[in-house]
Amino acid sequence: GAVVSQHPSWVICKSGTSVKIECRSLDFQATTMFWYRQFPKQSLMLMATSNEGSKATYEQGVEKDKFLINHASLTLSTLTVTSAHPEDSSFYICSALPTPGPYEQYFGPGTRLTVT
Amino acid sequence: AQSVTQLDSQVPVFEEAPVELRCNYSSSVSVYLFWYVQYPNQGLQLLLKYLSGSILVKGINGFEAEFNKSQTSFHLRKPSVHISDTAEYFCAVSVTGDYKLSFGAGTTVTVRA
Fold it and tell me: How far is the C-alpha of B1 from the C-alpha of A61, rounded, in Å?
Protein backbone atom coordinates (compact mmCIF):
# COMPACT_ATOMS: atom_id res chain seq x y z
CA GLY A 1 0.00 0.00 0.00
CA ALA A 2 0.79 3.74 0.01
CA VAL A 3 2.07 3.93 -3.54
CA VAL A 4 2.71 7.19 -5.35
CA SER A 5 3.28 7.24 -9.09
CA GLN A 6 4.67 9.91 -11.38
CA HIS A 7 4.24 10.30 -15.09
CA PRO A 8 6.25 10.58 -17.17
CA SER A 9 9.37 9.10 -15.63
CA TRP A 10 11.55 10.87 -18.16
CA VAL A 11 10.84 13.71 -20.57
CA ILE A 12 12.85 15.76 -23.04
CA CYS A 13 11.46 19.04 -24.29
CA LYS A 14 12.69 21.95 -26.31
CA SER A 15 13.50 25.30 -24.80
CA GLY A 16 10.44 27.53 -24.66
CA THR A 17 7.87 24.75 -24.47
CA SER A 18 5.85 23.62 -21.46
CA VAL A 19 5.77 20.20 -19.88
CA LYS A 20 3.32 18.70 -17.39
CA ILE A 21 4.25 16.14 -14.73
CA GLU A 22 1.57 14.14 -12.93
CA CYS A 23 1.71 12.82 -9.40
CA ARG A 24 -0.88 10.28 -8.28
CA SER A 25 -1.56 8.55 -4.98
CA LEU A 26 -2.73 5.13 -6.11
CA ASP A 27 -4.28 3.62 -2.99
CA PHE A 28 -4.94 6.49 -0.65
CA GLN A 29 -6.26 10.02 -0.64
CA ALA A 30 -4.00 12.99 -0.12
CA THR A 31 -5.21 16.46 0.69
CA THR A 32 -1.63 17.64 0.64
CA MET A 33 1.14 16.83 -1.81
CA PHE A 34 4.62 18.26 -2.10
CA TRP A 35 6.89 18.96 -5.05
CA TYR A 36 10.66 18.72 -4.73
CA ARG A 37 13.56 19.33 -7.03
CA GLN A 38 16.77 17.31 -6.84
CA PHE A 39 19.98 18.20 -8.62
CA PRO A 40 22.57 15.48 -9.33
CA LYS A 41 24.32 14.30 -6.21
CA GLN A 42 22.42 16.85 -4.14
CA SER A 43 19.56 16.89 -1.72
CA LEU A 44 15.88 17.43 -2.31
CA MET A 45 14.72 21.03 -2.22
CA LEU A 46 11.06 21.68 -1.46
CA MET A 47 9.49 23.76 -4.21
CA ALA A 48 5.87 23.98 -3.16
CA THR A 49 3.04 22.52 -1.13
CA SER A 50 0.02 21.49 -3.14
CA ASN A 51 -3.37 21.54 -1.40
CA GLU A 52 -6.47 19.98 -2.91
CA GLY A 53 -9.00 22.62 -3.85
CA SER A 54 -6.82 25.61 -3.07
CA LYS A 55 -3.78 27.44 -4.34
CA ALA A 56 -0.35 25.97 -3.89
CA THR A 57 2.10 27.49 -1.45
CA TYR A 58 5.51 28.15 -2.95
CA GLU A 59 8.83 28.24 -1.17
CA GLN A 60 10.91 31.38 -1.27
CA GLY A 61 12.74 31.78 -4.56
CA VAL A 62 10.42 29.51 -6.56
CA GLU A 63 8.65 31.26 -9.43
CA LYS A 64 4.98 30.39 -9.17
CA ASP A 65 4.26 31.59 -12.69
CA LYS A 66 6.89 29.27 -14.04
CA PHE A 67 6.03 26.20 -11.98
CA LEU A 68 2.24 25.89 -12.10
CA ILE A 69 0.72 23.45 -9.64
CA ASN A 70 -2.83 22.14 -9.79
CA HIS A 71 -4.24 19.76 -7.17
CA ALA A 72 -7.45 18.82 -8.92
CA SER A 73 -8.48 15.85 -6.82
CA LEU A 74 -7.55 13.96 -3.68
CA THR A 75 -5.34 11.64 -5.72
CA LEU A 76 -3.79 13.89 -8.36
CA SER A 77 -1.46 16.86 -8.41
CA THR A 78 0.24 18.22 -11.51
CA LEU A 79 3.32 20.36 -11.98
CA THR A 80 3.62 22.29 -15.24
CA VAL A 81 6.97 23.79 -16.11
CA THR A 82 6.13 26.68 -18.41
CA SER A 83 8.50 28.13 -21.00
CA ALA A 84 11.16 25.67 -19.98
CA HIS A 85 14.83 26.54 -20.24
CA PRO A 86 17.92 24.35 -19.92
CA GLU A 87 18.43 25.49 -16.33
CA ASP A 88 15.08 23.88 -15.49
CA SER A 89 16.56 20.49 -16.28
CA SER A 90 16.41 18.49 -13.09
CA PHE A 91 14.85 15.57 -11.26
CA TYR A 92 11.38 16.44 -9.96
CA ILE A 93 9.94 14.38 -7.13
CA CYS A 94 6.49 14.52 -5.58
CA SER A 95 5.25 13.19 -2.27
CA ALA A 96 1.81 12.73 -0.79
CA LEU A 97 0.53 12.97 2.76
CA PRO A 98 -2.31 10.50 3.48
CA THR A 99 -5.62 11.94 4.66
CA PRO A 100 -6.17 10.94 7.39
CA GLY A 101 -3.09 9.04 8.12
CA PRO A 102 0.29 8.67 9.70
CA TYR A 103 2.66 11.59 9.89
CA GLU A 104 4.57 10.33 6.88
CA GLN A 105 5.06 11.45 3.31
CA TYR A 106 5.06 8.83 0.56
CA PHE A 107 7.31 9.64 -2.36
CA GLY A 108 6.97 9.08 -6.07
CA PRO A 109 9.85 7.68 -8.13
CA GLY A 110 10.61 11.04 -9.72
CA THR A 111 10.58 12.56 -13.20
CA ARG A 112 13.75 13.49 -15.01
CA LEU A 113 13.29 16.60 -17.14
CA THR A 114 15.83 17.51 -19.79
CA VAL A 115 15.38 20.79 -21.65
CA THR A 116 17.36 21.13 -24.86
CA ALA B 1 14.38 27.91 9.96
CA GLN B 2 15.71 24.43 10.43
CA SER B 3 18.62 22.79 8.64
CA VAL B 4 20.19 19.36 8.41
CA THR B 5 23.83 18.38 8.04
CA GLN B 6 24.86 14.90 7.05
CA LEU B 7 28.49 14.64 8.01
CA ASP B 8 29.51 11.92 5.58
CA SER B 9 28.88 12.16 1.86
CA GLN B 10 30.10 8.64 1.14
CA VAL B 11 30.44 5.62 3.37
CA PRO B 12 32.01 2.45 1.99
CA VAL B 13 31.50 -0.60 4.18
CA PHE B 14 32.08 -4.33 3.94
CA GLU B 15 29.21 -6.77 4.05
CA GLU B 16 28.21 -7.85 7.57
CA ALA B 17 30.08 -4.92 9.12
CA PRO B 18 28.27 -2.26 11.16
CA VAL B 19 27.53 1.16 9.74
CA GLU B 20 26.69 4.54 11.26
CA LEU B 21 25.44 7.51 9.30
CA ARG B 22 25.68 10.82 11.08
CA CYS B 23 23.05 13.53 11.02
CA ASN B 24 22.99 16.82 12.90
CA TYR B 25 20.17 19.34 12.79
CA SER B 26 19.68 22.95 13.70
CA SER B 27 16.38 24.39 14.86
CA SER B 28 15.11 26.94 17.34
CA VAL B 29 11.92 24.95 17.92
CA SER B 30 11.10 21.32 18.54
CA VAL B 31 11.34 19.04 15.54
CA TYR B 32 10.41 15.70 14.09
CA LEU B 33 13.24 13.69 12.55
CA PHE B 34 13.30 11.18 9.70
CA TRP B 35 15.63 8.90 7.81
CA TYR B 36 14.80 7.98 4.21
CA VAL B 37 16.52 5.58 1.81
CA GLN B 38 16.61 5.96 -1.96
CA TYR B 39 17.53 2.89 -3.98
CA PRO B 40 18.67 3.41 -7.58
CA ASN B 41 15.82 4.49 -9.82
CA GLN B 42 13.29 4.36 -7.00
CA GLY B 43 11.45 6.85 -4.81
CA LEU B 44 12.38 7.65 -1.25
CA GLN B 45 11.28 5.15 1.35
CA LEU B 46 10.90 5.90 5.04
CA LEU B 47 13.31 3.95 7.25
CA LEU B 48 12.23 5.40 10.58
CA LYS B 49 10.98 8.54 12.27
CA TYR B 50 11.16 10.21 15.64
CA LEU B 51 8.10 12.18 16.69
CA SER B 52 8.23 11.81 20.48
CA GLY B 53 8.79 9.23 23.18
CA SER B 54 11.73 6.86 23.31
CA ILE B 55 14.93 8.37 21.97
CA LEU B 56 15.90 5.03 20.42
CA VAL B 57 13.86 4.44 17.31
CA LYS B 58 13.75 1.15 15.45
CA GLY B 59 12.93 1.10 11.78
CA ILE B 60 12.68 -1.27 8.88
CA ASN B 61 15.43 -3.54 7.55
CA GLY B 62 17.26 -3.65 10.89
CA PHE B 63 18.03 0.08 11.08
CA GLU B 64 17.78 2.13 14.23
CA ALA B 65 18.50 5.72 15.20
CA GLU B 66 19.03 7.61 18.43
CA PHE B 67 17.71 11.09 19.06
CA ASN B 68 20.12 13.20 21.10
CA LYS B 69 18.56 16.52 21.93
CA SER B 70 21.59 18.00 23.67
CA GLN B 71 23.82 17.27 20.70
CA THR B 72 21.04 17.91 18.16
CA SER B 73 21.85 14.67 16.43
CA PHE B 74 19.92 11.75 14.95
CA HIS B 75 22.48 9.17 13.87
CA LEU B 76 21.42 6.08 11.95
CA ARG B 77 22.95 2.67 12.66
CA LYS B 78 22.80 -0.89 11.46
CA PRO B 79 24.81 -3.63 13.19
CA SER B 80 25.36 -5.76 10.08
CA VAL B 81 24.84 -4.53 6.53
CA HIS B 82 23.98 -6.44 3.38
CA ILE B 83 24.84 -5.81 -0.24
CA SER B 84 21.21 -4.76 -0.69
CA ASP B 85 21.72 -1.83 1.69
CA THR B 86 23.72 -0.05 -1.01
CA ALA B 87 21.73 3.15 -1.52
CA GLU B 88 21.47 6.87 -0.83
CA TYR B 89 20.35 7.79 2.67
CA PHE B 90 18.73 11.09 3.58
CA CYS B 91 18.15 12.62 6.99
CA ALA B 92 15.23 15.06 7.17
CA VAL B 93 13.65 17.35 9.74
CA SER B 94 10.32 19.09 10.10
CA VAL B 95 9.08 21.54 12.66
CA THR B 96 6.69 19.90 15.09
CA GLY B 97 3.20 20.05 13.63
CA ASP B 98 4.38 21.15 10.20
CA TYR B 99 4.59 18.65 7.39
CA LYS B 100 7.29 20.33 5.31
CA LEU B 101 10.59 18.48 5.26
CA SER B 102 14.11 19.87 5.05
CA PHE B 103 16.60 17.31 3.80
CA GLY B 104 20.29 16.79 4.34
CA ALA B 105 22.62 16.40 1.38
CA GLY B 106 22.53 12.63 1.56
CA THR B 107 25.02 9.86 2.30
CA THR B 108 25.92 7.27 -0.31
CA VAL B 109 26.43 3.87 1.28
CA THR B 110 28.28 1.30 -0.78
CA VAL B 111 28.41 -2.21 0.63
CA ARG B 112 31.16 -4.45 -0.69
CA ALA B 113 31.49 -8.20 -0.42
Answer: 15
